[in-house]
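Newbie here. two chains, one complex. Structure please?
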Amino acid sequence: MAGAADDMALRMRAIESLLIERGLISEAAVDRIASAYEHDIGPLRGARVVARAWSDPQFKRRLLADGAAAMAELGVGGFVAEHVVVVENTPTLHNMVTCTLCSCYPWGVLGLPPAWYKSPEYRSRSVREPRAVLAEFGVELPPEVEVRVWDSSAEVRYLVLPMRPAGSEGMSEEQLAGLVTRDAMIGTGLPAAPAPAPASDRAGA
Amino acid sequence: MSGLSDAIRDEPSLPRSNGELVFDAPWQSRAFSVAVTLADSGLCAWEDFRARLIEEIGAWERDHGPEAEGWDYYACWLAALERLLTERGLVSAQELTAAECRIAHEQAHEHDHDHRHGHAHPH
């Protein structure tokens, strides 16, 4: 395996150095992308979007009508050719996102996908037996809740707007964002339950 | 089921931290970033890259079956990138092999050089 990985590392260096030598790309541009996705762009962006939607019904309406435009209000930009559609969970509907053909994912909002999202197993089983996959992620839904699976494409990526957890009334947007997990926005998880707020938080410190 | 459950177990429970490890090796980060840079700059449409990625993943799954061991997502990614570039005539297979040869020699030379410095020319 190490040999194959070394071969791929060498091949990648060859590709990059040829493209740079020819002036087709610049090393700085590649560095910028690598750094953004490794350090800056992560699911916290999506969590802020969800927290705003939970706190501001007008924003939520705009988000569901045109995800990209509403997210741009928060300075969350999409990736090239990426159109993010936000799908809302309700007491009777649970949404779950997959990409059966490759690994399309709302990068601009969630960063890069986790390893399992790219696995052949998740990509095939998420559409075939979504409830079983959800159960393996620890998400048990009552039988009356419909599960809808959204298959991403290059043009349309999906973000799940989870339900605001009970007991989160009165929490600030910042605190709400802390409840939103990446998996909740893929639909393979639920938001964290709010911890009882310490007295100092309630005083608005 | 071990593949998926292992992968889930390896995930941090609240993995929204920006410090999350997203690549297993530096070359995967470069492969990802070069493909995105090509799309961002308009040199290659993202859809053209994605179509080849789908083909590479599909071919791997046909050869190995969906539950098989040895799955390497970025191997498919790299193969798709290489095909896109060669099919577009942006680089040729021969040029890639020559560049690999040159880089491998440079790496070997750097190694020798460091080695000699370490012993014979302490600064």
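Moderator note: The two ends of chain A are 53 Å apart (CA to CA). The mean pLDDT of chain A is 89. Thread marked as resolved.
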